[in-house]
Batch of 4 targets.
Target 1
Amino acid sequence: MNKLETSFIHYLESIGYSQFNKAEKEIDNIQEGTTILAFKYKSGALIAGDRRLTTADLRVADDHLIKVLQVDDYSAIAISGAAGRGFKLAELFIKEVRHYEKIVGRPLSIKAKAKTLSFLVEKNMIDAKHGLIVSPILACYDTKIREGIVFNYDISGFAHMKSETRRPFATGGSGSSSAETILQKFFQDKDSKYTDKREAIKLAIDCIETASHISVATVGLNLDEGVYPIIKTISEDGVKDVTKEDLEIILQDE
């Protein structure tokens, strides 16, 4: 099979379509994503994001945005940055991964997924210079080694794999420095191999809740208002949502 058959992205390029390099001169009202994070834990990987969407001048546009999306059975993506461009990039990435599996009959490898996302972020570089920055995080579960793997990306599309046990995390968005501080301290004291699912979920909540007190572009937890982080775990059982009911049970135990 050639690239046009197995790659949705290459097919779009062959017919002259590109979602990239179309930045408008006026970018004052770009809507931006906020705090996202991912890290390894005992059974796999966890990926999470808050729900707030803000304009470039930090006005709140929405507190119910979903920035964490399932890619396939064993991977998920979180986006921060320019929301419109970020969702288009994520949508194209998800279609590429699923198109390959449909045509070839097997999932795209983790390495190939990471490279594909790198390609898409790199293609967005010109627009990023105009303010349309997209900063994704990719979290996967490797069924061969039975371990979670996390990737984060810089503006050039460089993918950094966060697989080491003492710094097995990635953060992005306006609250990333707060989240990173909490994660760094946690994993200095505890190996990710010994962090169970419940503890991992509590850690994610703590990161986003703390970020919300420092960054106005991040919303924390308010279950009464139906505002809570989107959290997904990825393990040998696949991608699973942490529901509002799950959060209520975990928080009641504190």
Target 2
Amino acid sequence: MEREKKAKKTPTGKIAEKKLDLSFVSLNQLEQLTGREHRTIKKRLEGIELVDTGGQFKKWPAKIALAKIYDAEREPDEINGNQQKARLTKAQADMAELELAAMNGQYVKIEMLETEWASIVSNIRARFLSMPSKLAPRLSGISDARLVEDELIKEVYEILGELSKYEPRGNTTASITEFDESDDEALLAATTADD
């Protein structure tokens, strides 16, 4: 370590050396001790308060500063046991919170959501594709274009009404075909009244 030499004679006649107090260190001292550039040191010591030690410059507490400099360089596998236990405990607590939220219906698994939406889209697609064969017999005898349009609109709103009324039921997959037809008739009446 660095020592500051002062020529003082002891009672025995030997020259005594005064040790430099390194409990607080300056930026230059940290550069010499660590071999790091001052920019690197300053960046790693951001947030650590400088202490006025009565000298020309404020200094950092040596133990804190050196630990901060060298902790930034450690590999993840060098983390001490307490830090690993704390990370594990936090991960377990986070997982328990997610599981509780899922049980309370606040969250669902992505796979479940994908399956649910695939089912919904498939049912809607099937309903739209079945429209021509379902409506052709009913519309074949109608020559008034306005009545044909009304029948088509009614069928489209019926299908869209199913989609708008869909509500998932917890962990079960609800069928898209479960709906109250009277609500669709009210929706159709409201939309045709606007025309």
Target 3
Amino acid sequence: MAGAVLLGAAAGAAYAVGELEIGFVLAAAAVLAVSVCWPMAPTALTFLLAGALGSFAGHWIVPGVTLPVFELLLAAGAIGAALALLRGWRERGRGGTLIASIWVPAAIYALFLLVFLNKRDLIPGAREAILLGYPLLIALPFAVVSPARVRSFFEAHGWQLVALASAAAVITGIYNSAIDNTVETSTGQLRALPGEYTAPLAAAVLTAAWLAVYRSRYIVAGALAVLGAVGLLLINQRSAYLALVIALIVFAATGPLPAMIRARPKTALRTALVLGVLLVVLLAVTPLGRDGVARFGALFDSSDDNYSFRERAVRKALKKDDAGEVILGTGVGLQRTDLGVDYTTDMAEALSSSLRLEPHNSYVTIYQRAGVIGVILILAPLAFLIWKMLRARRDELVALLLSFVVFMAIMATFNVVLENSFYGIWFWFPLFTGALIAIGGETAAPASRAAVDSRAAVDARPR
């Protein structure tokens, strides 16, 4: 670690005197030194920065070499984990190696697309092909940490990471509203935050439910719930409202909560009534709430230009006349950003262009770029890990992570999520965390859950 600190100081000095390339090399060496000691550190840092700063940080570029910061951090974590595995070092516990290994075929296919089906230069092609490489980059550090350590860290500090990211998002949204830095949605409501902030804010709402139900930390839970609700209303994204409702249903149906509700039905009913009244007041009385209701009401409004454009873009992405493109995909390097038209005002030209549109559906994008093979290589491992989490759903931490994964999976149906690092990491990181706990056999009832089950059993006894 002392070497990493010295390298970091030297990198700062090199940047200060204008030696950008030398500074980058030294900084990269410092990050790698940290990664060798703690492979999870760069990945966890990317997760936190992505939640707190969104696409602003996701578009950071290293001066002098024009390489993206987040991708470099993820690569450093993966390299550190690979070096640790090569020298035979990893913590006790099973599951991490399996989680990483099942994503190797997708990463290999990403290289195939980049080499053989790249329609333009290296960098544009790599930006699209990495969609299939993100899971392996993020999963490799999980191969060297134990399920027990991951569980203890997230039980103790997970809510703090979520609180920090969601607080930063809400502050940004309030600031944008104060300086009138807002945009109008296609249905006429205002939006003060970009859509990628829905990830930490929805996590805040779900984590608040977890803290209240299983930890009895009502003050912290209340503060987190307010942060999440206000932030989501500042974003005012209808797909986020739909996804959160479904995620809360999943949370309520998993973990020990169903047994607790059966044991104490009157308490559960009173709690539901109080929360329902507060939600009605928030949505009916406040301007933010009324805007949110109006936005959610337009969820399936086919007359909305944005809705109809996305529908047509999806149809165009799915239409393939060549059997080879169906199987292998159309390749990489044809991003919508190269169209040179404003697709929000010139939709006809955008749809007729020979270059590619992002259909705002990550699964369709996978098929568009990588064909049936790419879809199988991504969705099959994904389904396997979700199945493992479902088997361990009585564990309250797995139930929390599963509900959030469901939220992000729905968001990926309506948005550009898995295609980038700053949004996608909020899908992959919780998925791998929950799967590691589930596969690692660490889902036996901990003291906290045993206490919950014991209390529920006592309350259920006839009096």
Target 4
Amino acid sequence: MLEEALEQGGWEAVSKFAQQCGGESALSASGPLLVLPSSVCDEANPARFGLFVLGQHLAERFHAFQSSYPQIGDVRGLGPMIAMELVKDRQTKEPASDLTQQILDTARSHGLLLMKAGLYGNVIRVLVPLVATEKDIDEALQILGSALEEVLRTGQTSDAQQSAVREVK
């Protein structure tokens, strides 16, 4: 579906398609990560090539997170829009909405706002602003990595962080 949108209407059609489906099941239906044809993302078009490189960087980091944590059941996305799905068990794919919320709260207490999505609220979806610098993105990924480490390795957030999250809310 996305490839058809790209062929028929270019990037505007892909953007509209992604907005309509909210980056959810339509993206996962085509596999864990969509790979665009090199003719679309080449160095002759710096803006598109930059998005392509950014997407690769995000996908690499998200897949590294997935390799480290069995609770990350799937990583999917397109360019600078990427998501990770949290599950209680990779075999049963039972949604882990509670863990997702804990990760969001922990990240927020460290200054990173993330968005949850999905039918069960167990998907962390990221759409990087096009004006974000590489430093901004790396800082956000570091905070996300720390939040994942804290919640998924220890199983809970600290009392101080829970208090900070309550104050922000």
